């Protein structure tokens, strides 16, 4: 055998050994990256949410050696406080608009969005009528009572042609300038909206609670349109501004924004929810 041929064979053997060593770490980058743990706050996750985060967690662990842990909350206030205070690293429950309103109301807040997750078009549901035009005069409509989601709910009612608002950026019921059918619009806690469907004429239910409380889509009588203006309602992963560029946090976002997660979102939520990071206007 010629000397040059022996050299070539030797190089091939070395390459094979290197490749074998790489795959002994699971065929991913995790074997070469320092292990990190990131704690994420969520609000009342449904089984569908859990199934999506299971996929995200696997992506994060296998690709980036990041272990995701969760701390679950029952309201929209504590998760932001927990990130700001350093009790948890990130949270994933709110829209960009909600985060903006939160920051405006809490001057010490330094929370920022570090990536989109999903968008859940807000819906108006009713057990009494099957068409939004059939809501009777004086009908009671319940909406979320926190500032951001209340504003979003009122804007949905306006887009449905039920009311008209002034130009307030975060409207409240006092900003209604036209209500021809004298609807009684009542703000209540978000976790109670779905549970009121049998007692009121209609309710605007946040997508997360619609899933948790098993609200059937057949009762949806109006859906929020998907427009550039409504990009403010895309859900985000939030961190403090000083930590926004931490590699482990960026890896969590990358782990979320994958084809595998998009597939699971479609499987778990169907028409109720869709991936937001890949929407083009």
TrEMBL record:
Gene3D superfamilies: Periplasmic binding protein-like II. It holds the Pfam family Lipoprotein_9. One of its GO terms (cellular component) is membrane. This is Lipoprotein. Keywords: Lipoprotein, Membrane, Palmitate, Signal, Transmembrane, Transmembrane helix. Belongs to the nlpA lipoprotein family. The lineage of its organism: Bacteria, Bacillati, Bacillota, Bacilli, Lactobacillales. The chain crosses the membrane at residues 7-25. It comes from Secundilactobacillus folii. It is found in: Membrane. Its main location: membrane. It is a lipid-anchor. The keyword Protein biosynthesis does not apply.
């Amino acid at each position: 055998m010629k000397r040059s041929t022996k050299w070539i064979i030797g190089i091939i053997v070395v390459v094979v050994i290197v490749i074998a060593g790489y795959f002994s770490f699971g065929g991913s980058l995790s074997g070469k990256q320092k292990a990190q743990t990131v704690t994420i706050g969520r609000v009342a996750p449904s089984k569908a949410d859990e199934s999506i985060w299971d996929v995200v967690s696997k992506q994060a662990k296998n690709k980036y050696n990041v272990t995701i842990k969760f701390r679950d909350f029952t309201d929209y206030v504590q998760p932001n406080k927990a990130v700001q205070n350093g009790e948890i690293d990130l949270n994933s429950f709110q829209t960009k608009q909600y985060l903006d309103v939160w920051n405006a109301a809490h001057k010490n807040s330094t929370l920022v969005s570090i990536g989109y997750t999903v968008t859940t078009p807000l819906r108006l549901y009713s057990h009494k009528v099957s068409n939004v035009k059939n809501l009777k005069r004086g009908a009671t409509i319940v909406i979320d009572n926190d500032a951001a989601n209340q504003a979003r709910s009122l804007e949905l009612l306006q887009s449905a042609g039920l009311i008209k608002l002034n130009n307030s950026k975060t409207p409240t019921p006092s900003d209604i300038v036209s209500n021809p059918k004298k609807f009684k619009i009542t703000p209540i806690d978000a976790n109670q909206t779905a549970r009121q469907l049998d007692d009121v004429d209609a309710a605007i239910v946040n997508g997360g609670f619609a899933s948790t409380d098993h609200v059937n889509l057949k009762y949806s009588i109006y859906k929020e349109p998907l427009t550039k203006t409504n990009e403010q309602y895309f859900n985000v992963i939030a961190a403090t501004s000083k930590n926004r560029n931490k590699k482990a946090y960026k890896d969590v976002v990358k782990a979320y924004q994958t084809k595998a997660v998009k597939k699971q979102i479609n499987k778990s939520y169907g028409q109720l929810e869709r991936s937001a990071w890949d929407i083009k206007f």
